[in-house]
Amino acid sequence: MACRIIKTARRMGVETVAVYSDADKDALHVKMADEAVHIGAAPAGESYLDMEKIVAACRETGAVAVHPGYGFLSENAAFAERLRQEGIYFIGPPVKAIEAMGDKITSKTIAAEAGVSTVPGHMGVIESAAEAVKIAKKIGYPVMIKASAGGGGKGMRVAKSDKEVKEGFERAKSEAASSFGDDRVFIEKFIEEPRHIEIQVLADGQGNCISLGERECSIQRRNQKVIEEAPSPFLDAETRAKMGAQAVTLAKAVNYVSAGTVEFIVDKEKNFYFLEMNTRLQVEHPVTELVTGIDLVEEMLKIADGQALSIKQEDVTLDGWAVEARIYAEDPYRNFLPSTGRLKRYRPPTEEASAQLVVRNDTGVFEGAEISPYYDPMIAKLVTWGPSRLAAIDGLAVSLDQFDIDGVGNNIPFLAAVMQQERFREGHLTTNYIAEEFPEGFTGALLDEDTMLTMAALACRAAFQLETRGFAHPGAMTQQHVTTERSVLIGDRRWDFSIPKSDESFVLMTSEGQPLLIEDGWQPGASVAATEIDGKMLYVRMDRITSGFRMRYRGADLVAKVVLPHVADLMRHMPKKSPPDMSKFLLCPMPGQVIRLDVKEGDIVEDGQPLAIVEAMKMENVLRAERRAKVARINAAAGDVLAVDAVIMEFEAV
Fold this sequence. Notes:
Layout: H1 2-11, E1 17-21, H2 28-32, E2 35-40, H3 51-61, E3 65-66, H4 77-85, E4 89-90, H5 95-102, H6 104-113, E5 121-122, H7 129-139, E6 143-151, E7 154-159, H8 162-180, E8 185-189, E9 195-203, E10 209-221, E11 224-230, H9 237-253, E12 258-266, E13 272-278, H10 285-292, H11 296-304, E14 321-328, E15 330-331, E16 337-338, E17 341-342, E18 345-347, E19 352-353, E20 358-363, E21 370-371, E22 378-386, H12 389-402, E23 404-406, H13 412-420, H14 422-426, H15 433-437, H16 449-467, E24 485-490, E25 493-498, E26 506-510, E27 515-518, E28 528-533, E29 536-545, E30 548-553, E31 556-563, H17 565-571, E32 585-587, E33 592-597, E34 604-605, E35 610-616, E36 619-624, E37 629-634, E38 641-642, E39 647-652
Parallel strand pairs: 1-2, 3-4
Antiparallel strand pairs: 5-8, 6-7, 6-8, 9-10, 9-12, 10-11, 11-14, 12-13, 14-22, 15-16, 17-21, 18-23, 19-20, 20-22, 24-25, 24-31, 25-26, 26-27, 28-29, 29-30, 30-31, 32-39, 33-35, 33-38, 34-37, 35-36, 37-39
């Protein structure tokens, strides 16, 4: 976000100062800013959450204003007040508005009094798990337990039973205390088949306030948004107008100034209920910028400078469609667990802007940068705009194909798979989308027959390129140089190809006599193949392996072996190696710190029983037993920082 702000500030002629912790000394925002100030150690409590250090950085550099971005102190009223005392502008809303809307309990009360539709629930502070159970029963299951000062999915749990309320209450309080320094939680009714739709508002210091349309943010995992779009494929003009009017009413009720977002939960009948107001710029703000043509950071800077809004409500129009995919350092094949390490390769798609497609990549990293365990695992926000929803989706799919990341796990395969799902393309979204579409977790996408043939042909073409390096073109080959028949094996599938002599282009002939014209392809040393096969342009990630290639495309992860036909005949007789049995171990699923161990050596544990809690990037992950067993040995203690797959404990059968 700092990089995003710096871009607009630079265009406006405003100089910037970056603050950074030990973990971020080589970060991109530090390189981009006009000046940079070190403010402490890697843990956020010793740097980014220490408001006195940020005030000191302002004094040191003569900075007259602070843009808080969308994390850490961005919604901290005490920080805004501290800046006011120092005569430093806070580029955000007034202290009282932050206090009113930053506390979810207070905000619900204000919203109800202002006539804004709210979700049924208990808005008072809840002191104990037993009290939480009583309240949940009164509201009726399922319920949502939420941190009063929360955001970003932290301190949030859905509960469908008394047991889940007790456990969720404890975890929500703990996460809330760790992330926000405030462990208060409240409970409200969980709306089933919900859509998460939010309204962007802008307000100046002269009493003007407008809404800038909505964003659909329903595709979430662990209550954190993954894919967002503007406008929503669900809303009609009438509902949009009603939601916008209520958002403006709420903003005016608290004398709001600056950019803010009013979040609603919307049921299948288009009934909408106020969730919360984020008194800051949202992560997903680029989709609003692309459909309205309004630079929200520029507006925030102008408003902070005392200027009145130059835009009236009737001036706001929504043009085309924009879709954003959050690219995280996390492993979708392991339930989206965070991943850390060095970005050995980071090559985003080329940004572009035309009447048919806009590609925008908001990022804060670069090739060689380190993804640390201390902060949110977001790498980039890839956004596309098109004249229609499907045009924007298809543009995003191609851009994801072109995005080349290596060194850390990332969720690009998952995002690419979603872009192809018929349900997503038709706009049938709810906040349960990921759980419903991937009930067993993400295991990769399946490609259709034509695409699989294309993958096999590309692997065959690439293999010939390696074998014939030094020849002018494939048509120059002769039988004495190389045999022109090859078989490609992907899983249990086999394709046989031959290469007719051609001086014009590279043609593969399938065993059924189907010619495939490959205009371009993989180049030795390249990690992404840009290839056109029979007029269809594809971007496929390709890495060399023994006798073939690892190929990644649209969420599929394939191993293609390219061999002589007689070798392919023999390979089906090769024995398959079984993976080792790891069921007797509890492995650490991500790099993180052991917060608590719930069992001891000699205990008998049952299926589903909590064993340990590991914290990674401010999220607490409860690790549970998968079957009845005896704890034979514990290899870690509370406070230990573990690497991925470190053995926490060992089991034996009972």
